[in-house]
Design brief:
DNA-binding; mainly alpha; Tetracycline Repressor, domain 2; homotetramer; Arc Repressor Mutant, subunit A
Chain lengths: 210, 210, 210, 210
DNA sequence: CATGAATGAGCCTTCATTCAT
DNA sequence: AATGAATGAAGGCTCATTCAT
């Protein structure tokens, strides 16, 4: 029938409408303290309707994560930047990631706990989020290493370290750490220096460690 | 009365007994899915007894965190190492932290979510854990910078980045990320390189970025 | 929508159904010894349903009180009687009040204790019950005093004394006092004499006290 | 043993100490919301000790009532007054009762509810309190009637009405009724007029109702 | 006699989920 | 497809009472 695409569109709109409500309530109260009643109210639908689009309350989290991952167009981010200057690339990328993270802080704060606890969600999130981004970063780093522009480190682990740093700094932010929060905009620069140049300064009587 | 110290000792033992039970159940099921009944059973006491020692279920998390922080003798860790070689120091310190984190993975997985969600817990954890460790690290880094052995970065932010990396890598571990999990023992070395020397290799026709 | 009034009617019916159950159990066991589970069973609904219609267990008492007050059409009672003969008016009014009180004895026995203890309930009951009836009685007495048919006493206090007597006699009844219980039907007459004519007989050698 | 009387005295002192604590806590929170722990603390003893002197929490109420009744020396009150002037006697007696009631308001508020609800307490209270006072009042009234100084009403019912009025006015006071509370000191006079002379004023063209 | 830690039954309330309309 | 009333299991927590010390 010709109505199919229309229906699908309407259904997708409803889904999103519900997810928006869920995101709002989850962000404010956390997963467990958010009731389906409140989510329904926030989404402007009835409780029953939620269950027409999602299997369960946990299904809402899956939906949110999936949507999060769909929206992430990391590939673009990475390729958007001219690969010319490494530092500029790093800083720009970091800056974008940090802006993203900050804007989703509340949602992360709400969803992360449940993701940490629920094995299935954990798996989904890991696949759709961690591995996807890791893959892209690995490609980039690998290329740099191959080109002799970067130290031949264990690329996957280095990437994990980077990702970890992002996640961890977000966690610190969530903890309310003032230093992290106020320095958020400076972090891309600091990180770039840290990651690219390292902390160590060669003593004068030493050779530059390469 | 001579019984006072005995009383206190017995009370402390009970507290720990209860916390052990709580840790076990929290680790297995997470905070919200763990019922006080189950915790009581795991601890070998009655439900009522729990409330003779803790204000509420959330109080158990506070207790666990506090105990965690008490056990942490980071000061020793830092000073134990000869400050001779910076890299050795970093690697050794990282190794110890990573061992610690890994051994407490389950507990973290159980407690972290609730800490993220509950504002009061967040504050407590931040004070007792994040800031305490941050302070020690800052001292160390600052000294190195002052001695001209390290690049004059924004020390507090650099420290947060380090801490974030620890936390974040633990989170990746919790996500079940195979790369992180299998590379756990190699991470201290990778991180040391990353943090101390940086990724970038100077091209021959370039100046050393500072 | 045309369903709204139907909905409302059904909801009102449910409310009453629940209140009936609550009244039954409260009357039998008193407020505190009545469990919501038992109330639910007595009302023929689930425990959860109670909370769809009332905020809390205490809310049931409020509901009962309100319903009690709504049913009371004291105004009619007062005006129904011909104002012709004062004594007849008193006796008739008393008789009606006493019949009312007796029929609600159990409910009062169940609700009064909680009303006495809970400040909020106390206030509500005072407003909806005591003051409403007091106002009507005051009007009546005031009119009689103004007409010179009654002694110019402190009307509000006299009314409180009357109300107190009703309440107090009900309490004695609840205590199981046999004299009160068996004399219940005679009390209107006795009270009328007491209140209208007083106990004192003038000695022959004295003036009539006024 | 010679210690018996000493022991008994000490035991009685403890009992009273506990009852004082109970009275304080009951008065503040009501019977059900008062915990034995709090009572113990208020009495300066341990929870266990309470159970060495009383069977149960309800036993405390029995104890309080009994002590209340013991302290009441109504006989003295009644005989203290010169039987000369009836009105003076009534006013003086009322005044004393009202002062008593007011001073015990809180305790009544706390104990009455439980007395109303618990059949056993009800019986005890009725015997020790209601009937004892009723008996004394009946004697007095009966004598007055016999002496031709009072109208030959149904004495027991009249007495119940009086008692009811006391109880009822106390209840109104407890409800927080401002009129009752502020007029408390005037009530003895108002009541005396009400009870002795009645409200009705004879019209000039009528005979004095007898 | 006094203590107070331990008990565990039982309570009120919440909430995800279902289903008749 | 939407609704929202009804459900009832489950949960955290309180507290009167006991008993070993």
């Amino acid at each position: 029938m010709a109505q199919d695409p229309i229906r699908q569109q309407r259904a997708a709109a409803r889904r999103n409408q519900i997810l928006d409500g869920a995101a709002r309530v989850f962000a404010e109260k956390g997963f467990h303290r958010a009731s389906t009643r409140e989510i329904a109210r926030a989404a402007g639908v009835s409780e029953g309707t939620i269950y027409n689009y999602f299997d369960s309350k946990a299904g809402l989290v899956v939906g949110l994560m999936t949507r999060l991952a769909e929206v992430e167009s990391l590939g673009d981010e990475l390729s958007d930047t001219m690969p010319g200057d490494i530092r500029e690339f790093f800083v720009a990328t970091f800056r974008r990631r940090f802006a993203r993270l900050a804007s989703q802080e509340k949602l992360f704060r709400a969803v992360l706990p449940e993701v940490l606890v629920d094995p299935e969600l954990r798996e989904t999130f890991h696949q759709q989020y961690v591995l996807r981004i890791a893959g892209l970063l690995e490609q980039y780093l690998q290329a740099q290493v191959a080109a002799g522009r970067m130290r031949p480190v264990d690329v996957p682990l280095a990437v994990r370290s980077l990702q970890g740093m992002f996640v961890g700094l977000l966690v610190l932010r969530i903890f309310g750490d003032e230093t992290t929060r106020q320095g958020w905009d400076d972090l891309p620069e600091v990180l770039a220096t840290l990651i690219l140049d390292g902390l160590r300064l060669p003593r004068e009587d030493e050779e530059v460690a390469q």
